[in-house]
Automatic annotation (TrEMBL):
Keywords attached to this entry: Iron, Iron-sulfur, Metal-binding, S-adenosyl-L-methionine
Pfam families reported in the protein's UniProt record: Radical_SAM (PF04055)
Radical SAM core domain: residues covered: 9-244
Cofactor or coenzyme needed: [4Fe-4S] cluster
InterPro entries linked to this entry: Aldolase_TIM (IPR013785), BchE-like (IPR051198), Elp3/MiaA/NifB-like_rSAM (IPR006638), rSAM (IPR007197), rSAM_sf (IPR058240)
Name of the protein this chain belongs to: Radical SAM protein
């Protein structure tokens, strides 16, 4: 496959065909994110994308999942997305699930009919970075969208039949804003009611504005116990009708995968045990983005 630069994908897309249709992130201004720093956003040439689909059809014909890269493939106009999804369906008939990162900003560029058309063409799941349900936190992190806008666009995606994986970021408000961040984020997740919710833990990346704030003493990182306590509050305030809650990212101290509401009480007990020192945490040197 013709991949430019490093590859970033969700943990659940580890076995997927990774098809790069854009480079970088169309926003790329979040204070905490260093994923695409130094990688200017651009749309990949359609001929190269189609050549990659042909290559995958020859080399990876039995794969059942495909993920559209980079940071926000849905920012592509329909005139680019439709031929790509059509080619995937025709040349990779075993692919049953196509996923992509998305944002409220990119979803806003699509009408309800266009979202339904993407679902019809095979797009099945989108990964949406909520990060926080606290409007002040999103503003400080220069997310570029409000919580209200994200809730609205998530509802539109669900109405079109798309599955949602919503990512939130522990520690983003620092110790002083931890409780409000956890409670507001749990409330937002509950309103979205996604098929999957995923919690990551903040790891400061050199060269990002948030790392600069930390170096200058303007931001305080949460300790491991503070992150665990925040996770407990988040879980307590998250009410999913029947969703997976994932904490299996490499940045987390206490990895788990749970089905809510069935496993919620057990997760809270596990977090309490970890806070009491009765469960071993992942050491700092093993944590990674």
């Amino acid at each position: 496959m013709d991949h430019e630069g490093f590859i970033i994908r969700p943990p659940s897309e580890a076995d997927s065909i990774l098809l790069q249709v854009t480079l970088g992130c169309s926003h790329n201004r979040c204070a905490f994110c260093g994923a695409y720093r130094g990688k200017p956003f651009r749309v990949k040439e359609q001929a190269r994308v189609m050549a990659d689909i042909d290559w995958a059809a020859k080399k990876l014909p039995r794969h059942s999942r495909l993920f559209l890269m980079d940071g926000d493939a849905l920012v592509l106009p329909m005139r680019r997305l439709e031929p790509i999804l059509t080619a995937i369906r025709e040349k990779l008939p075993r692919v049953r699930r196509v996923g992509s990162y998305a944002s409220a900003r990119s979803l806003q560029t699509k009408t309800d009919a266009e979202l339904a058309r993407l679902k019809e063409l095979g797009l099945d799941i989108i990964y949406l970075g909520l990060e926080s349900g606290d409007e002040d936190v999103l503003a400080r992190m220069n997310k570029g969208v409000t919580v209200a806008e994200q809730l609205h666009q998530a509802a539109r995606a669900r109405a079109a039949g798309l599955k949602l994986n919503v990512t939130v970021l522990l520690g983003l408000a620092g110790p002083e804003g931890s409780e409000q961040h956890a409670q507001a984020t749990g409330a937002a997740l509950s309103q979205m009611d996604p098929e999957q919710a995923a919690a990551l833990s903040l790891m400061l990346v050199p060269g990002t504005p948030l790392h600069d704030d930390w170096e200058a003493g303007r931001f305080t990182q949460c300790t491991a116990p503070e992150l665990l306590a925040e996770l407990g509050m988040l879980v307590e305030h998250t009410h999913l009708s029947r969703g997976l809650f994932l904490c299996n990212h490499g940045s987390n101290h206490l990895p788990f995968r749970a089905r809510f509401p069935k496993d919620k009480a057990a997760v809270l007990q596990s977090i309490e045990a970890a806070l009491a020192g009765e469960r071993e945490l992942k050491p700092e040197w093993q944590r990674r983005l």
